[in-house]
From TrEMBL:
One of its GO terms (molecular function) is heme oxygenase (decyclizing) activity. One of its GO terms (biological process) is phytochromobilin biosynthetic process. One of its GO terms (cellular component) is chloroplast. Belongs to the heme oxygenase family. Residues 102-147 are annotated as: Disordered. It comes from the Eukaryota. InterPro entries: Haem_Oase, Haem_Oase-like, Haem_Oase-like_multi-hlx, Haem_Oase_decyc_pln. This is Inactive heme oxygenase 2, chloroplastic.
Length: 320
């Protein structure tokens, strides 16, 4: 057995044989260190070398946020529910004997996708009779022929109008619904004024008939609506006053010029500035409308069409 002192000599004899081999000390045997530690940085901050074979560094993962798509607004929506209803009313005006058949929303956007959207877009002239403010204000019927009001028809119009105003004003005064309380004593009330006009006709020995079908039907519909939905009732409440201020009083004054020698009707007189009073009602309704869902607002727009249909039927009593 070789002694310890002879081991270095034995090792020296063996090592050269390995030195000539390329399996151990050949340059390609040594792989470069994949990572180097920077002394000035913490141990967790390792920098990977991109020059080492078999090591690839991928780009950081970028997460793209999905863009939020906003619903396009209805005409007038930015200003409030009353402006939306005004757009509907203006589209109900008669154009050369033909109504527009669809609600045009190209100026303010597309659809919100709700069920009520299709109802609003489907509101057509066939669903509404002639509203206040159409060709009848110019004294013409649908065929462009001049129409002539009758005293009997005019009184029927006043009687049915009084029934409608009696109904909405009574509901607002007597209801326990908080929403209706905002619209008490607005200065727009017409029931008392109509009573004075009918009393004057009675003094002139003009027979005062009972309310006819258009007024009775509309009043019943309003009462039923008031019990089911405040927004829908208020849609009619607003549009009834709007139709009279914007067009109804024009018709009344024209009839008065033709048959009553221009007598000033109480129906068209207000104690204060009617436009200021009406603006206050608009403001309050817009305030309430901010708390209504889009579906409720769409239904209010459809009720706007119905309101002008019913009021249009009452106006036509003048020439029947």
């Amino acid at each position: 057995m070789a002694s310890y002192s002879s081991f270095p000599a034995a090792a020296a004899a063996v090592i050269p044989s390995y030195a000539s081999s390329s399996c151990l000390f050949a340059p390609q045997f040594f792989l470069p260190m994949p990572c180097s530690v920077q002394p000035s940085r913490p141990a967790s901050a390792l920098r990977c070398s991109s020059s080492g074979p078999g090591i690839s560094v991928s780009a950081p993962l970028v997460i793209k946020k999905k863009r939020k798509r906003y619903r396009k607004l209805y005409p007038g929506e930015a200003e409030g529910i009353t402006e939306e209803m005004r757009f509907i009313a203006m589209r109900l005006r008669n154009i050369k004997g033909k109504y527009t058949h669809k609600l045009d929303r190209s100026s303010a956007g597309g659809s919100s996708g709700s069920d009520s959207d299709s109802e609003v877009r489907g509101s057509t002239a066939e669903d509404s009779d002639r509203g206040v403010g159409g060709d009848e204000e110019d004294g013409c019927d649908e065929d462009g022929e001049t129409w002539s009001p009758s005293m009997e028809g005019f009184v029927k119009y006043l009687v049915d109008s009084k029934l409608v105003f009696d109904t909405i004003e009574r509901i607002v005064d007597e209801s326990s619904d908080v929403a209706y309380a905002y619209f008490r004593k607005t200065g727009l009330e017409r029931s008392g004024s109509l009573s004075k006009d009918l009393e004057w006709f009675s003094q002139q020995e003009v027979a005062i008939p009972p309310a006819s079908d258009p007024g009775v039907t509309y009043s019943k519909y309003i009462e039923e609506l008031a019990e089911k939905s405040a927004p829908l009732f208020l849609s009619h409440f607003y549009n009834i006053y709007f139709s009279h201020i914007a067009g109804g009083q024009v018709i009344v004054n024209q009839v008065s010029e033709k048959m009553l020698k221009g007598r000033q009707m109480e129906f068209c007189r207000w104690d204060g500035d009617v436009l200021i009073s009406f603006q206050d009602v608009r403001k309050k309704l817009n305030m309430l409308g901010e708390h209504w869902s889009r579906d409720e607002r769409n239904k209010c727009l459809k009720e706007t069409t119905k309101a002008f249909r019913y009021m249009g039927q009452i106006v036509r009593l003048i020439i029947l």
